[in-house]
Every structure is written in structure tokens, then in C-alpha cells.
Amino acid sequence: MLRPIGRQRQFRSSASVFPSDCDYTGSSVAPTKTSPRKRGFRKPRSPAASANAWTERTSNGTRILQVPALNKLPWLVHGFSSRPGGVSALAGRSAVAEEKVEQVLNLGFAEWDSRENVLENRRRFQSALGARELALVSLKQFHSDVVHVFETAPAEPCQGDASATNRPSLLLGVQTADCVPILLVDPRRRAVAAVHAGWRGTLQRIVMKAIGKMQMEFATNPADLLAALGPAIGGCCYEVGTEVASAFLARFPNAAEWFDELRTGDEPNPLQWLNMMPPGHQPPAKNVFLDLRKANRAQLLDAGLSAKNIFVSDLCTACRLDLLFSYRKEGAQSGRLLSVIGIRPS
Ligand SMILES: [Zn+2]
Fold first, then answer.
1. What's the rounded Cα separation, in Å, for the pair 241 and 256?
2. Are both 225 and 252 inside the same structural domain?
3. For 26-40, how does the pLDDT look when each residue is reduced to its tens digit (9 = 90+)?
4. How far, in Å, from the CA of 317 to the mean position of ligand 1?
5. 210 is in which domain, residue-wise?
6. Distance between Cα 153 and ligand 1 center (Å)
7. Euclidean distance between the first and final Cα of the chain, in Å?
8. DSSP element (H, E) containing 204
9. Which of 32, 30, 48 is nearest to 293 (CA)?
10. Which of 100, 166, 282, 335 is the Cys-Cys partner for 191 at CB 3.0 to 4.6 Å?
């Protein structure tokens, strides 16, 4: 129970690094940012150190999560949306118990919401990012490993789960409500990608395939890439069947590090489900917890990224219904988060 509280505190403290009313004109790249980061360089690098580098910025009730290392690039726009601040009325399983209907920033077309609301929310989100002039390129996501490269915005959304471009004026976006949104930027070649990685996409190595596409199309060197892994369901809440664990173990030598057993309390349980037993003597199948961000971070390292260039949010969508959406927790009534990255028009 300590971990969600820790998250909340970290989220608030990172938010306080910036004034909550700062605008999105790009003028916020101030020298004052460098002093806390300089101290960070002295510390040993770890996922936690990268997580601390996240900031929150708000504009007209819209709260956006960003990574300072990406904000430093003046030609780049990026951001991870959150729940509050929109025009969509979400009834039912509100995180705010006393409210029957909650106003949320739903950025995906869902049955419970109108198209007009979603479009208005998207306008607000883009406006808050200072990215109104960029054309949003979203995908018809289907948990695949399909990566598209865009030179212009397509008339209709393409089927796929990752997109990449080196052209300005396109705002690549992926929708999530538990799955991992991953934004990639190649500062040297000025190319970007957005990736949607649920367990199926992660199993199919979609983020590595997106990087492969960037290597082919833009001559990207993975060592140059910066990666931001946004809010997603955490290893604290993402319970999956052992068949999912077995599928990962068959494909990744280090997959056992991404899973955790249900804890009963006192005894540390050393992944008993991994033990082979004679037929007829198998213990009943037991669910396990999967840490999708850990799995994708491992793939990024395997692809050649430097650990210091990988920024992982530790916000769990299922733990933080006050701030995020979780399909696991809210079902069909869940909203959708949108994570975007693009190159500003010159
Ligand atoms: Zn959680």
C-alpha cells in the first residue's frame, strides 16, 4: 500500500518543479532547470532516477505529463495526456466517489462518448501542448506489430500500433488505457515515433520493430534515441494468466524478471509456477503480475538505447483513477489517454 502513496508524492513533487500556470509557448526552456538535473547526473543511473525527471504542466484544467530531456529540443512537441479537464461526461465508476458524473479528457472514440466531445478534447489537448497547427495522426490500433511511416497525414486512420516520421507538422499519437505508450525521438536525425505496447505488442517486440523501421527509413542510430514510457498499468495491478507468462518465457531469456507472483504475506515466493513438474502433479495454474514497462525497457536496452536516455513514468493507470484511465478497472466505460510526439513546422 506504500507504493501508490509514494507515486502520488513523487508526482506532486515533480509537478512543483514547474509553475502550474506555465504556458506552452516554448519559453519554458529556462536555465533554472539545469541545476536539479546536474545533481541527477552525479547519481547512479536507475529507472527510478529517470522516473524522477518527469514533470507535469497544466493549462486550462488539462494536465500533461512530459519529460524535460525531450522538452529541451525546441523543434519537438510531445506529451502524455491525463484524465481531468475535458468536456466528456463520464458516469458510473468515478474515482471521485461523491460525484455522479465526472468531466474527463477522453481522447479516444468510445461508445459512451460523442465524437464532438472527443474532437473538442483533442483540440484542448493540442492547444495545451502548443501544437494546434500539427495534424494529429492516430491509428486504428489492434495489438499488432504493424509500424507505419508517414510522410503526410492519411485521410483515414491506418490499422497499426506504431507510427514514425521525419516530416514536420505531423503529430503522431497512440491511445491507451493500461497499455504502455512509448514515444521515441532521434535528436540527430530529427525523427520521431509513437508506439502502443500492450502485452501482445510487447510479446511481438513492437518497440524494437519501430526502432528497426527508424534505422531503415531515417538511418537512426539507436544509441542516439531518447525514449519516454508513459503511464501504464503497473506490475502492482496487471494480473495475467500463466499462459501469458509462458509465452514471454518462450521468447525472452530474461522474461522471469518482468513477472511477480501473488504475495500471500510472509514468505517470498520464488516463482513456483516456473518449476517443471511431472504430468498430473502440476499445481493449479496461478495468476501472476506482469510489469509491461520493465519488459519494454529491457527491449529498448536490447535495441541499443542507453539507460540514461530511457524515461519511465511510474504512474499506474489502475492505482491512479483520479488522474488516469484504466480499462482493467473501468471496463467499457473507460476513457482513453493520448500520447503524442511530432516535429514542429519550421
Ligand atoms: Zn497499480
1. 14
2. no
3. 223 233 333 333 333
4. 7
5. 2-16+44-235+310-343
6. 35
7. 48
8. none
9. 48
10. 166
